[in-house]
Amino acid sequence: MLPAPTVFCMSFVNDASGYIVVRFMIGFSLATFVSCQYWMSTMFNSKIIGLVNGTAAGWGNMGVELTIDNVIAEYFYDRFDLKLHLAGIIAACFGMANLLARPFGGFTSDYMAKRFGMRGRLWNLWLLQTAGGVCCVCLGLVGSLPLAITFMMLFSIGAQAACGATFGIIPFISRRSLGILSGMTGAGGNCGQG
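^ thats the sequence. predicted structure below, dont judge the formating
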């Protein structure tokens, strides 16, 4: 709830400098994400770190979800001649998948690590990202609304589960630089959505 007032202030922005100031304040108030990732990674057992970080980072970090949320309703409105309200409801499903998909990505990261070690975590991430990417391409190619909704949901699950799986890998890169890595990864996830 800390960034809520600054997000509200975005509605009053009418020039570039105002935009930069408000975006800075939003980013500053969301900086607690980095400390959250650090503490989650040090407080929980490495056997469940994917699920823990996938849940905490996935729900707390903005990224691909906000980028797609900004354009997917317009896509359905333009491509399938839907009413804007209905297109918005369909588009909201993309973000709602976040609640389960990101923890699922962390869980599958832990599961694959039990079976194949770090290589399993990396393959899991690659598979989820690739599946999400393929479904995104298919979303753009299909011409029927039911298929488009199906591919949108599969794209959402793949992309957001990959976000959760990413934070199942971060704690194992460098314990000494865990805070920096978490911050850089979170910042990277936000690129393009501002």
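The chain is about 80% helix and 0% strand.
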